[in-house]
């Protein structure tokens, strides 16, 4: 009523308050459909522990473990629907669609769309691309993306560490000579040094010319290996202040720390009350067990163990899978699809009243424990 904001206060926008991790999801688009790339997560704050000022990005990693295969499919469907609707209204979008997603307790939600690749997300997503990038981009331009098999490398992760000038994102020096680019660690296989704020002087010396100077990307069979390659290279690089010889390079030392130390994702198969699951739930809740239950599946629609899954919240996949008309192998394949879609890494059998197929035990070999002995002959009824 006091019009403290003048005319700007004439319109009030009420927005939803969303909680959950953020993920950067990039999609190739040809004006008619979209193909989602592996999700990435980046670090915006300048200092370790997500402290300090916001920046353009101090590092990133992909694939982001928080985006499960099920979420990946859901987010891709959202991007496809967006491109389809844009085409329907006569404004087809061709290029890279950047979807900033918030993974809320009620599912993924779009924070923003951008018409570009992300930085530094691109430096960890494109190294995972197996299909030739030119082939994909040409298909996008020609409206033939559906004719290209867009493939990404399996069992490969990428991590990038941004090397910035000390003081960035506030006042920072320029002109330092960049040392170490020819080191063995920087030239090693699986390592790529991307230049951003650099220039080459008249004497052929590469020097700093911006705040975020380099992005050093490492790839490996997992995120730990990718980080090791990246940081090994970063340690050999210096931004040398020639009067003093001091290195004026700053980088974060905790890129992907939360993802590397993430909790074990547990899936549960059960047929009965699930009483033996309670100690596991308690251990997860109090931190005794560094894990989280992400899926509870049952072959019985009224099994009380499903209620225990629902009590863990809407983020937990809780599902009855009917065996009607399915062979043992087909049924187990359905269960595996649900578990894998929820990003399950380890399976607990809790009062599970079915004999498992060879395919199931082979797929989950070394990652499956029978917590409650329902498979013993004494309890064999209904198997």
Describe the fold and architecture.
By secondary structure, the protein is of the alpha+beta class. It has 10 helices and 21 strands. The chain has helices at residues 69-88, 122-125, 133-142, 184-187, 223-234, 257-260, 278-286, 304-310, 328-341, 358-363; strands spanning 22-30, 34-36, 41-42, 45-47, 51-54, 59-62, 94-104, 107-114, 157-165, 177-179, 191-195, 198-200, 206-208, 212-220, 238-240, 249-250, 264-270, 291-298, 317-320, 346-350, 368-370. Strand 18, helix 8 and strand 19 form a beta-alpha-beta unit. The longest helix is centred in the N-terminal third of the chain and has 20 residues, at 69-88. The mean pLDDT is 92.
Average residue-wise pLDDT: 92
Q: Radius of gyration, rounded?
A: 25 Å
Percentage of residues assigned to helices: 10-25%
Helix-strand makeup class: alpha+beta
Strand content: 25-35%
Work out the helix count. 10
The largest sheet is: 6 strands, antiparallel
Number of separate strands: 21
Shape assignment? globular
Task: Point out poorly predicted stretches.
Answer: none
State the separation between the terminal residues, measured CA to CA.
70 Å
């Amino acid at each position: 009523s006091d019009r403290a904001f003048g005319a700007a206060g004439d319109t009030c926008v009420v927005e939803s308050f969303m909680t959950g991790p953020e993920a950067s999801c990039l999609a190739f688009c040809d004006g008619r459909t979209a193909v989602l790339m592996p999700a990435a997560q980046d670090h915006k704050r300048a200092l370790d522990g997500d402290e300090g000022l916001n920046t353009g990005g101090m590092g990133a990693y992909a694939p982001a473990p928080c985006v499960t295969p099920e979420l990946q499919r859901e987010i891709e469907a959202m991007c496809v629907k967006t491109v389809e609707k844009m085409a329907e209204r006569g404004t087809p979008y061709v290029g890279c669609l950047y979807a900033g997603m918030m993974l809320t307790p009620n599912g993924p939600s779009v924070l923003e769309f951008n018409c570009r690749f992300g930085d530094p997300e691109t430096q960890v997503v494109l190294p995972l691309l197996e299909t030739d990038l030119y082939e994909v981009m040409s298909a996008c331009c020609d409206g033939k993306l559906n004719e290209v098999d867009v493939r990404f490398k399996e069992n490969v992760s990428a991590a990038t560490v941004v090397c910035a000038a000390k003081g960035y994102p506030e006042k920072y020096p320029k002109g330092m000579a960049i040392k170490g680019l020819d080191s063995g660690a920087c030239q090693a296989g699986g390592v790529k040094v991307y230049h951003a704020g650099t220039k080459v002087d008249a004497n052929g010396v590469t020097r700093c010319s911006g705040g975020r100077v380099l992005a050093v990307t490492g790839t490996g069979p997992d995120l730990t290996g990718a980080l090791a390659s990246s940081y090994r290279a970063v340690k050999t690089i210096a931004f040398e202040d020639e009067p003093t010889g001091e290195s004026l390079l700053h980088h974060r030392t905790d890129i992907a720390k939360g993802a590397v130390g993430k909790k074990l994702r547990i899936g549960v198969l059960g047929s009965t009350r699930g009483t033996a699951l309670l100690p596991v739930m308690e251990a997860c809740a109090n931190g005794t067990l560094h894990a989280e239950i992400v899926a509870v599946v049952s072959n019985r629609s009224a099994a009380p163990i499903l209620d225990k899954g629902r009590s863990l919240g809407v983020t937990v996949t809780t599902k009855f899978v009917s065996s009607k008309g399915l062979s043992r192998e087909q049924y187990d394949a359905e269960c595996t699809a649900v578990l894998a879609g929820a990003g399950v890494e380890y399976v607990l059998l809790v009062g599970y009243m079915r004999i498992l197929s060879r395919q199931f035990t082979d797929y989950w070999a070394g990652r499956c424990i029978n917590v409650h002995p329902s498979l013993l002959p004494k309890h064999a009824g209904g198997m």
